[in-house]
Design brief:
The N and C termini lie far apart (43 Å). Helix content is 82%, strand content 0%. The chain has three helices and no strands. By secondary structure, the protein is an all-alpha fold. The model has no long low-confidence stretch (mean pLDDT 91).
Length: 78
Amino acid sequence: MHGNFIENAPIVALSLAGAETLEMGAVWLWIGFLSFWVGRLLHYYLYDSRQRGISMALTTFPALIWGCYILWMVWIAG
């Protein structure tokens, strides 16, 4: 059983909720959301391919950016 979606989706959802709560721009939230889903679809199609890293990057990049934004906003607020 491949659990990649089960591992990534909750982290992305929590970071999306946190970034939205801290009033990140809607355009950036949508870009990240679409990047995540395009990455998931590409992961399905490119699973046994050498280009699989592209889909993995598109899947994890939004959570990384939102997480950095959350940390930055908490740091400057403190």
